[in-house]
Amino acid sequence: MTALQKLATGLAAGTIRVVDLTHTLDPDFPVIVLPPEFGQCARFRMEEVSAYDHRGPAWKWHNISMSEHTGTHFDAPSHWISGRDVPLGSVDEIPPERFVGSVCVIDCSDQAEADADFLLNPGHIAEWEATHGQIPPGAWVLMRTDWSKRSGAAYLNMHEEGPHSPGPAAEAIRFLVEQRDITGFGTETVGTDAGQGMHLSPPYPAHYILHGAGKYGLQCLANLSELPPTGAILMAAPLKIKNGTGSPLRVLAMVET
Fold this sequence. Notes:
By secondary structure, the protein is of the alpha/beta class.
């Protein structure tokens, strides 16, 4: 059998399982909150157009509106100032093969539970590689924190000085980009950066370094606890929005049972 035939057979037989890494979009799902002097991310909204009634007797449908960066979503290089001139930097320009790739899941759930401001650093990556092998070029690296199990106010974890949530240190992202040539980095939090990432150097290092290098981000992921450290295949295709800086999307992973 060809590789694709083996895949189809595995899916049909249940030896390959599809894991949904996506939160349900609804008006209550938290979005990032910026200082009031800046523009804000719009929450998801859905308006009924008709429901098998006088507005449309045989059909039901809705109008929807939201920010490109609402819910489980994709960040393209053009989202950040460092990536504004990157070739193929908007979601409609990215080659589609970049949306499918191998997955490395670094489990930081214990550290994140102990410290909401936990930062992934190169030492943690070295420990992971000592057990699971070197992160291959083109992989997606996902930071598991189990933050997706939170909801409401606990998800954003806002305090007087701003949000508190785990994320990567600048040195970790720089290592993954420059030494491992990853495709992208994903988190279970509302952004790829830590909640207090504005105080790091550079500010918001995941955004700045990833997108300046033409790499991608995924955030608000769910169910990372269902993925093995290695061996899964990720599918994360954003909407093909002309000049789009990002997009909500359905993120799926295939894992062997």
